[in-house]
Design goal:
- The chain has one helix at 78-82, and strands at 10-14, 20-22, 34-37, 43-53, 63-70.
- By secondary structure, the protein is mainly beta.
- It has one domain (6-82).
- A five-stranded mixed β-sheet has the order 2-1-5-4-3, with no helix packed on it.
- The longest helix has 5 residues, at 78-82.
């Protein structure tokens, strides 16, 4: 038996970029949620869609697929609006 539940694997998709994965547990992201990714230079995203896949042999492997829109430095970047000095690039 596997050490992890493959349905807890998250694959993140941002248009025009290679997807990345993690296996964070807890409350799954939902459409409309904001997401701060410290591992990608603190980019901020908005979740636009979430799909679950049971296809272990296809283009969308088993687990949760989270589709993101990059909102870094946009009008929807609420974190930068609240703490602009924290996200400055100087």
């Amino acid at each position: 038996m596997a050490d992890y539940d493959p349905f807890e694997l998250n694959t993140y998709h941002v248009e025009g970029e290679l997807p990345w994965q993690d296996s964070h547990h807890g409350v799954p992201l939902q459409v409309g949620d904001g997401f701060l990714d410290a591992s990608s230079n603190y980019r901020r995203f908005r979740v636009v869609d979430v799909w679950y896949s049971t296809d272990s042999h296809g283009a969308f492997d088993v687990g949760r697929h989270v589709f993101l829109k990059d909102v870094t430095a946009s009008a929807d970047d609420r974190l930068a609006a609240l703490q602009p000095d924290y996200f400055r690039k100087d």
